[in-house]
């Protein structure tokens, strides 16, 4: 099997392109299920979709000429041409290494960000639920997530903010002078919204969070924050110093027209969503400064990857390819078992037939499994097939010798009689 991936991210694709290929979890599930079902050459399919990147991973036959970027655009009904220069396609070990670097936060706009590990884990989980994941992608993503966790645990990549929400608070504190006593409205009460509200509250803001009235079940509101219905968000903006929006809405939560109608408009607006929550026209309104995920991360410092991180990546790449090589060897291992069994059964002769034959097959199977399991990093399918060939040659020679011997015995017996 071979791994193929195509992705576009903040480094080559502007936000206007990325938001066209940004998907909710439900959309990701529908897409991977459809892509996997519509192409029999695709054995596994997983899709990562975040604010910074959209990446499609495929597991295919080695000779596959599939193009993941064109497949993704076709699946959502978008013309490929506008995206051609933004996609980067990788194959084999380059694709596997890239995923591990992504999971470690090494490819993020905010270097070393915390949320990407859970996003990578969620991507393979969604693929599994849709029946789109295969053993190759399952093992690759599991190793990538493990590598990311080990990097987070053992190595401090950076001393600055490691989430978009934390970066936003840092930028606001820098540009507003201070946040103590400022009034903030946070639109959205999902993971990013709650994190943003908590960080603003810790920075000294008086924070109000919007809640949607149709949501059921337990609603978590960060400690110390007020609440307002989502539908009343514009009246709640009056007199606010800043507004931060972080939802999964497919539509704008804040439009330029609605914002311009306010009498006491906020001076600072932050959009942490993809696709964007805030109409870009809001930034053209006099007195308002608008940030989005690209402008917030533009000044992020990227250091050299520490040697400890490179060692971790190499370790998990080795684990994945050790497993991958062993999997490729499985057909040859079965051939080896059959060849050895045939050789054992050829000489010496068995007296009781079936029971002993079954015992030999079981013994050979267990012995070969133990041998190949302990040496799986040292052989290839080609090595095993060469062994099989030699065993078959010896078996054939021994069979001919036995036939000749039996023939001579029959002739001698006839002569005596």
TrEMBL record:
Annotated signal peptide: none
GO biological process: protoporphyrinogen IX biosynthetic process from glutamate
Keyword ATP-binding recorded: no
Keyword NADP tagged: yes
Span of domain Quinate/shikimate 5-dehydrogenase/glutamyl-tRNA reductase: 173-296
A GO term for molecular function: NADP binding
Pathway: Porphyrin-containing compound metabolism; protoporphyrin-IX biosynthesis; 5-aminolevulinate from L-glutamyl-tRNA(Glu): step 1/2
Superkingdom of the source species: Bacteria
Record site feature (Important for activity), residues: 98
Keywords from the UniProt entry: NADP, Oxidoreductase, Porphyrin biosynthesis
Residues annotated for NADP(+) binding in this entry: 188-193
Positions of the Glutamyl-tRNA reductase N-terminal domain: 7-154
PANTHER family: GLUTAMYL-TRNA REDUCTASE
General remark: During catalysis, the active site Cys acts as a nucleophile attacking the alpha-carbonyl group of tRNA-bound glutamate with the formation of a thioester intermediate between enzyme and glutamate, and the concomitant release of tRNA(Glu). The thioester intermediate is finally reduced by direct hydride transfer from NADPH, to form the product GSA.
Subunit structure: Homodimer.
Name of this protein: Glutamyl-tRNA reductase
Organism: Intestinimonas butyriciproducens
Classification lineage: Bacteria, Bacillati, Bacillota, Clostridia, Eubacteriales
């Amino acid at each position: 099997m071979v791994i193929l991936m195509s992705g576009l991210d903040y480094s080559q694709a502007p936000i206007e392109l990325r938001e066209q290929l940004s998907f909710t979890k439900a959309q990701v599930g529908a897409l991977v299920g459809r892509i996997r079902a519509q192409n029999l050459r695709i054995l596994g399919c997983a899709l990562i979709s975040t604010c910074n990147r959209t990446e499609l991973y495929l597991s295919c036959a080695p000779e596959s000429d599939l193009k993941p970027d064109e497949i993704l655009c076709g699946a959502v009904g978008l013309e490929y041409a506008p995206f051609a220069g933004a996609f980067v396609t990788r194959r084999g070990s380059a694709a596997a290494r890239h995923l591990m670097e992504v999971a470690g936060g090494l490819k993020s706009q905010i270097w070393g960000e915390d949320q990407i590990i859970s996003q990578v884990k969620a991507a393979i989980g969604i693929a599994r639920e849709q029946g789109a994941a295969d053993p190759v992608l399952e093992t690759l993503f599991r190793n990538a997530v493990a590598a990311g966790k080990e990097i987070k645990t053992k190595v401090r990549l950076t001393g600055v903010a490691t989430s978009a929400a934390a970066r936003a608070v840092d930028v606001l504190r820098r540009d507003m002078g201070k946040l103590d006593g400022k009034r903030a409205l946070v639109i959205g009460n999902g993971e990013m919204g709650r994190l943003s509200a908590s960080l603003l509250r810790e920075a000294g803001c008086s924070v109000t969070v919007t809640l949607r009235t149709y949501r059921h079940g337990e609603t978590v509101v960060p400690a110390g924050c007020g609440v307002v219905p989502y539908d009343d968000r514009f009246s709640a903006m009056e007199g606010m110093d800043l507004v931060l929006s972080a939802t999964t809405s497919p539509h704008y939560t804040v439009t330029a027209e609605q914002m311009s109608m306010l009498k006491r408009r906020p001076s600072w607006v932050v959009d942490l969503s993809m696709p964007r929550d805030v109409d870009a026209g809001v930034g053209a309104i006099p007195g308002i400064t608008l940030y989005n995920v690209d402008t917030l991360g533009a000044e992020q410092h990227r250091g050299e990857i520490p040697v400890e991180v490179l060692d971790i990546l190499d370790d998990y790449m080795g684990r994945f390819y050790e497993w991958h090589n062993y999997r490729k060897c499985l057909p040859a291992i079965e051939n080896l078992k059959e060849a050895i069994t045939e050789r054992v059964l050829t000489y010496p002769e068995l007296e009781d037939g079936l029971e002993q034959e079954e015992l030999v097959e079981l013994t050979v199977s267990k012995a070969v499994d133990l041998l190949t399991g302990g040496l799986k990093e040292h052989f290839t399918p080609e090595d095993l097939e060469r062994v099989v060939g030699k065993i078959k040659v010896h078996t054939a020679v021994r069979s001919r010798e036995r036939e000749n011997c039996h023939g001579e015995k029959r002739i001698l017996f006839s002569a005596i009689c």
